[in-house]
Design a protein that fits this description.
Blueprint: H1 8-20, E1 26-30, H2 31-44, E2 52-57, H3 64-72, E3 77-80, H4 83-92, E4 97-100, H5 107-115, E5 120-123, H6 126-136, E6 142-147, E7 154-156, H7 166-179, E8 184-188, E9 192-194, H8 198-211, E10 218-222, H9 239-254, E11 258-266, H10 270-273, E12 277-287, E13 293-296, H11 305-310, E14 316-319, E15 330-336, E16 345-352, E17 360-363, E18 384-388
Parallel strand pairs: 1-18, 2-3, 2-11, 3-4, 5-6, 6-8, 8-10, 10-11, 13-15
Antiparallel strand pairs: 1-12, 7-9, 12-13, 12-17, 14-17, 15-16
Amino acid sequence: MRTFECDTGIIEAIAETARSRPEQSFYLLHEARLRARARLLVDLFLPGYEQRRVAYAVKANPTPRILDILLEEGITAFDCASLREIELVRQLDVAAEILFNNPIKKRGDIRRAQRLGVRHYTVQSTSEFAKLRDCVGDAPTEVAVRLAVANPHAVIDLSEKFGAPPARFRSLLAEVAAHAPAAAGLSFHVGSQCRDLRAFADAARLAGELADGVSVPLAFANVGGGLPVNYAPDDRYRIEDYFAAINRAVADHLLPRLRDGGKVIVEPGRALVADSVYLAVPVLGVEGRARRRVYIDDGIWTSFINVALFRWPFRFDVVGRDLRPLREETAPAVLYGRTCDSTDRIGEVGLPEDLAEGDLIVFHDFGAYRGALATSFNGFEPPRYVSLP
């Protein structure tokens, strides 16, 4: 009999759902785990500081039920990158604080966002700031100037595309502060899946030093996201350690540059939702060639695009159809997706020797940048969500 990394309740819920959805993959949202995670992150960030904001990065997973749960657990600020994300949040909560943080925006989207009550924007160039001023006029508006932060310890370094380089950042921040002295702020992002918590102190120190050239205290500082998730079996990241590092960096380098009561923002996406979602995928076929091939009801065009792009690691359990016992012994197999695309190859893994059609592979930590990136390529729809309270 195989042992599972998932707890028994989750395995049983997945098996029961699979019986009612034969041959269909699905995401299982563990609502209690998401609630606990949201409360933990809120508690860890700058405890006792009144003007703190934990703003969820909607792009990680825009599933409405997830947004509802976060709202219920006290996360009322949202980092949005598009008009569609803004409209989604507004439909769920008319009072939510929305940060329109895409540094390159359409004029029409800015005007529509203003009508929807958005008062926080991000820029990284003088031309974008001029565009923003043209669109919002004299309306009270918070403007963040984003600093480019290179980080070799991030799985995805965002600095090539996002942020003003230090020399330009200082002059742009001064320009924004001169135009709107009560509403200028700074932001940075240390990169996705940051594997070295010292990156936050380095970025905050640089941002703080550059902000010294501004003649007025800043209204806010945004330290971005990048908090890592334990995807690989050997990963041992502790979210408590990361928030302790962030809080120290804020206290040492950013709070001295803010006006009294200045706002401080953190924007977790992946770290907030990843471990609350499982992906259950039925085996569609097994071919016993020289190298065994296993075909599943998902692939690189839906839930596994991160594997295709970045060779992202993953953990999984294997559950026999109707909970039938599977052998502990495993053998190599190549996982293939369901499309008629020869590149739809997930990779080589060890799977039970007696794996068969109808058995389930349950992937862990699939709540971030999975369904959000899924396509309907080749006529295959993304998996649907099922909730476990």
